[in-house]
DNA sequence: ATTAGACCCTGATCGC
DNA sequence: TGCGATCAGGGTCTAA
């Protein structure tokens, strides 16, 4: 479930169960996800208090009072599920264990946070909080879309020599961190830019227009609780609803919401791209 | 340094 | 109902 809006939604869903709460016991059911889990992960987590949950790009960082941070990436199919907490008037009971429940954090006070990931493209690591920026998974990331380092001049400079299609360039996490396949498609539709155009051949004014559009699309998606495709759920079991606002993504053969032209699907760099051949030039 | 393609893994869905 | 092909919101690694 993981582009920036979904990860941010997960982070917000986990915060009430985790922030300020001690991990009574960490249960690690397999030694590896995408990569081997860090040495003695269960022992290093057990007994620590989670001070704060943060997000960097599509990563969640749980700062521990041990001086380490737990780095979490959801990959394609990773989910974080909270149970044993109150949700409004109702108590979320612990569900029966599921296949692919790889890591379970038993929190003091009875809450439980379960990391489930069928495809195992997800990852976890432990990093010294004060050296986090140098972590190999974080070091190469581009600016946060909502950060001060992401602005018109930056994006123009970052793209002006890229011969790759603009779709691929915006998916590159070195350029801007956090966009994925859904939101790149939606952004390019809103910007009326053809996803097949080479990044360096697009007028600087149009590249500049992408900055506010990226922020708008991501903000709206976060406000909607992200997108819930194929019944994926957020940490507390709620469904996001931004998928109802898609203009192009997953809408092949449907009419463009702006002009009625049939939305097309093509493949770029092995990923589906959806676009309106009339609106996007 | 950039870029295209293979690859990682499981499960749902679609056409036959 | 079964079976193979295809697809899926991620990213890394290799070779050119």
UniProtKB/TrEMBL annotation:
Pfam families: Fapy_DNA_glyco, H2TH, zf-FPG_IleRS. Its cofactor is Zn(2+). Residues 2-122 form the Formamidopyrimidine-DNA glycosylase catalytic domain. Its EC number is 3.2.2.23, 4.2.99.18. InterPro entries: DNA_glyclase_Znf_dom_DNA_BS (IPR015887), FPG_cat (IPR012319), FPG_Glyclase (IPR020629), FPG_N (IPR035937), H2TH_FPG (IPR015886), Ribosomal_uS13-like_H2TH (IPR010979), Znf_DNA_glyclase/AP_lyase (IPR000214), Znf_FPG/IleRS (IPR010663). Binds 1 zinc ion per subunit. It catalyses: 2'-deoxyribonucleotide-(2'-deoxyribose 5'-phosphate)-2'-deoxyribonucleotide-DNA = a 3'-end 2'-deoxyribonucleotide-(2,3-dehydro-2,3-deoxyribose 5'-phosphate)-DNA + a 5'-end 5'-phospho-2'-deoxyribonucleoside-DNA + H(+); Hydrolysis of DNA containing ring-opened 7-methylguanine residues, releasing 2,6-diamino-4-hydroxy-5-(N-methyl)formamidopyrimidine. PROSITE patterns: FPG_CAT (PS51068), ZF_FPG_1 (PS01242), ZF_FPG_2 (PS51066). Residues 247-281 form the FPG-type domain. DNA binds at residues 100, 119, 162. Keywords: DNA damage, DNA repair, DNA-binding, Glycosidase, Hydrolase, Lyase, Metal-binding, Multifunctional enzyme, Zinc, Zinc-finger. The active site is at 2 (schiff-base intermediate with dna), 3 (proton donor), 58 (proton donor), 271 (proton donor). SMART domains: Fapy_DNA_glyco, H2TH. GO terms for molecular function: class I DNA-(apurinic or apyrimidinic site) endonuclease activity; oxidized purine nucleobase lesion DNA N-glycosylase activity. Monomer. Belongs to the FPG family. Involved in base excision repair of DNA damaged by oxidation or by mutagenic agents. Acts as DNA glycosylase that recognizes and removes damaged bases. Has a preference for oxidized purines, such as 7,8-dihydro-8-oxoguanine (8-oxoG). Has AP (apurinic/apyrimidinic) lyase activity and introduces nicks in the DNA strand. Cleaves the DNA backbone by beta-delta elimination to generate a single-strand break at the site of the removed base with both 3'- and 5'-phosphates. This is Formamidopyrimidine-DNA glycosylase. It comes from Thioclava arctica. The gene is mutM.
């Amino acid at each position: 479930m993981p582009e920036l809006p979904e990860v941010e939604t997960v982070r917000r869903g986990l915060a009430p169960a985790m922030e300020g709460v001690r991990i009574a016991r960490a249960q690690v059911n397999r030694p590896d996800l995408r990569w081997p889990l860090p040495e003695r992960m269960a022992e290093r987590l057990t007994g620590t208090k989670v001070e704060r949950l943060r997000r960097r790009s599509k990563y969640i960082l749980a700062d521990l009072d041990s001086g380490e941070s737990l780095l979490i990436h959801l990959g394609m199919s990773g989910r974080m599920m909270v149970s044993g907490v109150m949700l409004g008037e109702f108590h979320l009971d612990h569900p029966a264990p599921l296949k692919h429940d790889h890591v379970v954090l038993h929190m003091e006070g009875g809450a439980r946070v379960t990391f489930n990931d069928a495809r195992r493209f997800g990852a976890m690591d432990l990093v010294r909080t004060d050296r986090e920026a140098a972590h190999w998974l974080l070091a190469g990331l581009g600016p946060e879309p909502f950060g001060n380092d992401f602005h018109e001049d930056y994006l123009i400079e970052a793209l002006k020599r890229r011969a790759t299609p603009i779709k691929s360039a915006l998916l590159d996490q070195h350029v801007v961190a956090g966009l994925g396949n859904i939101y790149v498609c939606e952004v390019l539709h809103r910007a009326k830019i053809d996803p097949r155009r080479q990044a360096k051949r697009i007028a600087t004014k149009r590249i500049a227009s992408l900055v506010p559009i990226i922020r708008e699309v991501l903000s709206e998606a976060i406000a909607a609780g992200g997108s819930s495709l194929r019944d994926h759920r957020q940490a507390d079991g709620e469904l996001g609803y931004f998928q109802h606002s898609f203009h192009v993504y997953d809408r092949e053969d449907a009419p463009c919401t702006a002009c009625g032209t049939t939305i097309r699907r093509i493949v770029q760099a092995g990923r589906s791209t959806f676009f309106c051949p009339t609106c996007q030039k």
